[in-house]
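Bumping my old thread because nobody answered last time. Still need a sequence for this structure:
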């Protein structure tokens, strides 16, 4: 038989736990009443009138001359030099400033139509911030690291005689031969999507942002990237060598070099987990004479998911590309006048 004094003590201990349980239940109820899931922008799709158009699934298929097919539901076409860019004569017309944009899937435009890519929209944005005639050349291709993005630009972009070369940097561009993978492929690591508790879906993102910003767990993608950028000298050396080659190629051809830092579309606030990586890459660009244009300031305060291609794909959608184009154009206006022929 339990002594009455012990029962009273247990009762006193149980009161706080009961109060906490009631509070959590009330908060969960409130969350279910007031929680509104973030609306996402509707993805544009291309409905083919030609059923013979092939479905493109590999990078090899994307890198073919005069390709025409469907890639991730979008019309995908290349010109005679394998670029997702308009057919243009290699000889540049008089009084035109040509801007070559090199990089990976962000530049190529995964999940959007070609006219929605920021490389395409850059022409119109440039006329707004600095009146003149502009042509953009898109040498981007999904899956390229920094080394191969520069190689492709040197092979296919230089024949167009660009005046300005913009390297669109994405955080995974360091993934070369010495990159070390440590992340565990868990799509919903923190159960933000699968949790039955609405309260966790409301407050969980804040906890995750704090954790990823200051103490990313082993096995997370943030921890993997930081290890390679800051602790893997060989991987960083490969990346820096690509910047060196780009700087040398552009200098030898009288081309102005620009480093445009894409924002990874997660946690667009002061807790954004990749600021230290952007800062290191920006410093490397400055050391090599690049005009460095960050895009994070233009994204701060926004909700990232309305900028995604889909709920499962955080590549920028047409609105995301519009924001990138406007940001890049504003930055390019700061180039010396001799960069604009």
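Sorry it took so long. Here it is:
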């Amino acid at each position: 038989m339990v002594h009455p004094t012990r029962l009273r003590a247990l009762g006193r201990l149980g009161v706080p736990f009961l109060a906490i349980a009631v509070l959590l239940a009330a908060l969960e109820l409130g969350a279910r009443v007031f929680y509104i899931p973030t609306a996402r922008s509707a993805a544009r799709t291309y409905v083919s009138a030609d059923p013979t158009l092939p479905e493109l699934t590999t990078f090899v298929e994307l890198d073919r001359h005069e390709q025409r097919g469907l890639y991730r539901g979008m019309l995908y076409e290349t010109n005679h030099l394998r670029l997702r860019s308009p057919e243009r004569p290699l000889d540049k017309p008089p009084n035109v400033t040509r801007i070559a944009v090199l990089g990976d899937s962000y530049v190529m435009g995964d999940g959007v139509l070609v006219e929605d890519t920021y490389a395409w929209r850059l022409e119109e944005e440039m006329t707004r911030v600095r009146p003149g005639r502009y042509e953009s050349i898109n040498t981007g291709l999904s899956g390229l690291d920094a080394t191969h993005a520069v190689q492709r630009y040197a092979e296919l972009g230089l024949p167009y005689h660009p005046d300005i070369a913009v390297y669109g940097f994405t955080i995974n561009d360091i993934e070369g031969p010495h990159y070390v993978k440590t992340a565990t492929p868990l799509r919903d690591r923190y159960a933000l999507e699968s949790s039955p508790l609405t309260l966790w879906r409301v407050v969980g993102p804040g906890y995750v942002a704090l954790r990823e910003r200051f103490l990313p767990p082993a096995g997370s993608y943030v921890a993997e990237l930081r290890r390679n950028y800051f602790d893997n000298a060989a991987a960083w050396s490969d990346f820096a060598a690509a910047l060196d080659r780009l700087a040398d190629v552009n200098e030898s051809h009288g081309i102005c070099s620009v480093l445009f830092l894409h924002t990874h579309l997660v946690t667009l606030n002061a807790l954004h987990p990749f600021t230290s990586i952007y800062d290191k890459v920006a410093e490397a660009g400055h050391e090599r004479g690049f005009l460095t244009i960050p895009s994070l300031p233009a994204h701060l305060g926004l909700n990232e998911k309305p900028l995604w291609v889909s709920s499962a794909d955080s590549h920028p959608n047409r609105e995301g590309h519009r924001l990138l184009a406007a940001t890049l154009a504003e930055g390019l206006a700061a180039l010396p006048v001799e960069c604009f022929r």
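The chain has a mean pLDDT of 86. Let me know if any region looks off to you.
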